[in-house]
Design a protein that fits this description.
heterodimer, A: mainly alpha, Helix Hairpins, B: 166 residues, mainly alpha, Four Helix Bundle (Hemerythrin (Met), subunit A), 2 domains, two-stranded antiparallel ribbon, 71% helix
Chain lengths: 104, 166
């Protein structure tokens, strides 16, 4: 049977974070950017939980931290989507390219 | 005493999550992207199960695959005037790709250098009861602060999304 160490989990989390980073920079729709941010938050969670399981499983610090990260990212996504809806109501568009009222 | 993670199950879940993330980034339809994100979240929940974090796995699927994805779908549907608006051109960003590749390679170097410091998985893994006990004794204050953060977020979301006459 093939065994998997912590490096595999770290690598997977790195790949997911990289994909999320690209999506957050490249996509032009505000909702897609929020989705990419979620992907990045989740990959960090995965890393924390995996390392906690491999290094100090009885302390469970990683799992507790993951719960708090989840709370913060849930709050972030709720506020972000409310903001997207408010912007849509004002400008009738959620494209990031149309949000240029602060442009000099 | 050590335990191991089944490599085959890990490979399947890793393939599902990376494939879902790529699907989310390459699909042209925003609705499809939300469903791909849902698939990634379910796969990550499976990975949490592999790491014997049962409570976290269930909560993860509940929060991300349940609540967040549904909220995303609602916002997408509310912010589309026509059905065709969901389909949009694929955004390609050279700068974003360079940034992501740079970041990925730095992390890869770090993992290749220090990733094998811990190789063995300890056999003892506390269960959900132990997690709950820890959360309400040692982490009680951060736990209460987290609930306050959620309350503020809910009030802020309601405040922002209310109807304004102008």
């Amino acid at each position: 049977m093939i065994e998997v160490g912590p490096a595999a989990f770290m690598g997977l989390a790195a790949v997911l974070f990289t994909l999320g980073l690209y999506g957050a920079v490249a996509r032009k729709s505000a909702v897609m950017v929020l989705m990419s941010l979620e992907l990045m938050a989740v990959s960090v969670n995965l890393n924390v939980v995996a390392l906690s399981r491999f290094v100090t499983p009885t302390e469970m610090t990683g799992q507790v931290f993951a719960i708090f990260t989840m709370v913060v990212s849930a709050a972030e996504i709720g506020l972000g989507l409310a903001l997207v809806l408010a912007i849509y109501r004002q400008t009738r568009s959620i494209e990031l390219t149309t949000m240029d009222s602060l442009k000099g | 005493m050590t335990e191991t993670v089944n490599g085959v199950v890990f490979a399947i879940l890793a393939f599902a999550s990376i494939g879902g993330a790529i699907g989310m980034l390459t699909t042209r339809n925003v609705m499809h992207a939300a469903f791909w994100l849902l698939e990634v979240m379910v796969a990550i929940g499976g990975l949490f199960l592999l790491l014997s974090a049962e409570y976290l796995a269930v909560v993860h699927v509940l929060v991300y695959a349940g609540a967040v994805s549904v909220m995303m779908l609602f916002v997408i549907m509310l912010s589309l005037r026509r059905r065709e608006d969901a389909v949009r051109p694929v955004d390609v960003s050279i700068g974003g790709a360079v940034l992501a590749i740079l970041f990925g390679s730095i992390v890869y170097i770090a993992i290749a250098q220090y990733g094998d410091r811990v190789a063995e998985m300890p056999a003892e893994a506390p269960d959900t009861a132990a997690l709950g006990e820890l959360l309400f004794t040692r982490w009680a204050l951060p736990f209460e602060v987290a609930s306050l953060v959620l309350l503020v977020a809910v009030v802020g979301a309601v405040w922002w999304s209310r109807e304004v006459d102008r």
